[in-house]
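Hi everyone, sorry if this is the wrong subforum. Our group has a chain we'd like a structural model of before ordering constructs, and none of us has done structure prediction before. Sequence below.
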Amino acid sequence: MLRSLSLRSASTCALLAGASLAASSGLANAQTTEVTEVVVTGSFIRGTPEDAALPVDVLSAQDLQKQGAPALVDVIKSIPGVQSVLGETNQFASQATTGSGNINLRGLGAVRTLVLMNGRRLTSSPGGSGVDTNLLPTAAIGRIEVLKDGAAATYGSDAIGGVVNFITRSDLNGLELNGSYTHIDGSDGDYSLSANYGWVGDRGDILLSVGHRHRSELDTLERDWAVNSYLENPNGSWSGFGNPGTYIAGATRIVDPACQTLGNTLVTSAAGTQSCYFQFGRFNNLVETENHYQVYGQLNWDLGETTRFHAEALYASHDVPHEGTSPSYGPTQAFGPGAASGSFIIPRSNPGLCGTAGTAACLPGSLFGQLTPAQQAAVNGSGFVAGNILLWRPYGAGGNPLTGGSKPDKRFFEGMRFSASLSGEFGGGIGWDVAATHMINRSDIVTYDIPVARLHYALNGLGGPGCDTDPATPGVQGGVPGVGSCLYYNPFSSGIAANAATGETNPNYLPGSPAAQANSQEIGRWLFQPYGYQSEATLTVIDAVLNGQAPIDFGAGPVGWALGAQHRTNGFSRDVNDINNIALNPCPEEGVTNCVTGRGNGVFGFLGPLTEQDLEGNVLAAFGELQVPITEALSMQLALRHEEHSNGVGSTTNPKIALRWQATDWLALRGSAGTTFRAPTQSNLLSDANTTQAFITQTSGYRAFDTFGNPDLKPETANTYNVGAIVSLGNFNATVDYWTFDFQDTIEAESGAGLLSTIFPNGASTTLPNGCVDPALAALVARFTFQSGVCAPNNIQRVRLGIINGSDIKTSGVDFSATYRANDVWGGAMTFGLDGSYLLKYDSAASFIEGVQVQGAQELAGTHGGTAGGSSFPELRANVFAEYARDIHNLRLTVRYIDSMQDVRDGRFGGTNIFGPNGAVAGFTLPEGAKLDAFVTADASYRVLLPWETTMTATVVNLFDTDPPFARRDLSYDPATANPLGRTYRLNVTKRF
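Answer:
Right subforum, don't worry. Here is the predicted structure as tokens:
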């Protein structure tokens, strides 16, 4: 909802409205037409002072223009109060949302930040990571307002950590074109194009805006810090699921002889066993190819003396045509005769192993001839190699057969939004506003994986679409192995010519007759199938607000009031490809619904099945607000909101009080207190699983995590407090605010890391008293699916978690900002500024699963990795700038600082958390990556106002080409806080007609 403010009482706000973020762009010398009204965030009451009690920060287009017109993701990441955002690389942070962006105020999670556009709600992304900010019409945005305080009493659910309001411009009168290009070393660069047309008349205004932004792929191999050896970073996208891989023949462990030849690493465990580790990060990207499109239009029109009509429409999309991922996943379930032991059976007749059955001599160049005599005896003795599913993957160093590199996964998101309102005034000065908003956000996700039954048949020479001679038996292949249209799949190095990412060649590769060891594209196309689903999130909101002034005056002016009601309908639906629909394919065999050989994990080797969904929930709200001028120096704001949620969620009432006291001419004090809440989503309430992949220290690799919803969830709540001061002394202005949030019943996934460390502390074996054999932990052990049913860390195949009302969280910090302007400096003016946030506390209570404590209380301020998803909580984030302006020139230097962090993830550094309450354990030398260094960068930007209403801005980002701090993560840095691009050069030009 919106609050209106007359320009006559807020000239500074008008200045902000007159500048355009579009300029990705904006022109300081652009034509503007006086705007009769602007929209600001924080209250429903007209006439509430701009500098009221609430801590609202404004990012104007003019400010952003002076910084080089950064992309929206860069703008969001630069806000000190924002922590752990998406936008650079999402693949390992929030899966299947690549290309999306979000806002995460206070590090509380993007789902706890309410995002508005022109004061009205946007629907969350179907990916479940909050509102997708990359669908916003960047070229049309005039300013961004950030309310860094709990606001459920005003806006309702989701405004738990704060509100960010994107406000479009309404001042443009003419045509404006903008283009920018960013040079990035190792990439084709990024570029954006936009066009805005505006018209302002006596009775209204129109804005039409179109924009396109392209991001080019940046390969991990283009940055020498991103891909490290196993010794340098064993967590750097190394996996024991190798290819070339590790296999079992009877009781003998066999590592493919070409493991190291093809660029993999031979790793020896403490027990002396060896495995071939594959680095899938070489096939990943630091930035994917992304194409973003936005089309936006709005109309404001006076229907009479007191009635105004507003309408806006948006279409936006972003497309990732190929996400760079591993060539294949490692299977976590098996099929066929060896399935009970967690193995695939690779017969001696497989051309990669031997090429002949029985005791006949093996074909030249097959794997058999490269084995030691003892290994050959083991293979001959058993007649086959049993491929342990946790020791290899079907395709690795040789690349994916469909692309020659990474899997051809795709991500596509689109959003459509329409909002219309009527506002006016009754007699007696009572204002009214009614509005309807509808938004649809869709996603189309395709991720390729291999059905385990197909893999089994292909290993045994019965692969390929033409080999099924008995269609009456679904999922069962018939025919003669290796004859005619029945094809073999060779899992060994004899079928790999070279490492597709780095180029190492295989001298033992034999592509054709007589061995026929190379895998054909035909078998690859048959093996890989699209695990796909199409999701849609919808939101329909109807608002009605009355506001005015009461006949009550304590001597400082009448009491302002607002009353309103809102109805919201949230919808979510998901259509699932038949092959990964659990209703159609719950078993490893395609088309089979009575699982004889499987456990209901679906057909795929790694990704779990999905259900189709069609969900809807309704919210009915009533709210009220008072603005009370108590004295000339003291004012009070009161707000109260009640919401009724459907589907058994219940109701909630949230109050808020805020005070502002002008203590002296130069000092004002402000404070607020209130309660806030967040309701569970419809998906949270559904007893259905969402499968993701996560790194498990105990296995040194990725495993499948199935997270199930919970129909018994209740809303999470929080108490919020804010106390601050505003200083204004001539050309010096400053603010400082202390804030705190106290959460109860947080909606969260159970701690997978805690579950693992409870059953397998430090990756230990099952013989420990608190491991698999403890009856008190039986319910926790049941959360695992183990290979062969044997409880051991290396046998973990899948992990089951749930959505719960979990640990209480208490967090607090201090926000601060200051600016000073010095006039008459070298014929111009100098401005100096500081903007920062210091995290004092982020404490999480102990976590429990099945009534068992799996994780102790944590103090997370200044740490990395202590929460699900490995969130980052640097204590200090700050920006300092110096700016010189003279005539048509503006030069700005900005230094950005993100504090160092301790990596507190268990097991990453040879044991449990190596940090004590006062830092590192005394006498212990920190291993590399245990502490993420501070990330300090400098940007320089020059803007010049040229003739013919043209503005040019040249910017160097990361002036000193600073590498991101090393982190023990997949790509060796923390994408939530650092930037992988290095020094970049951006040129931005805007032309006005």
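For your construct planning: Residues 1-39 have pLDDT under 50 and may be disordered. The radius of gyration is 30 Å.
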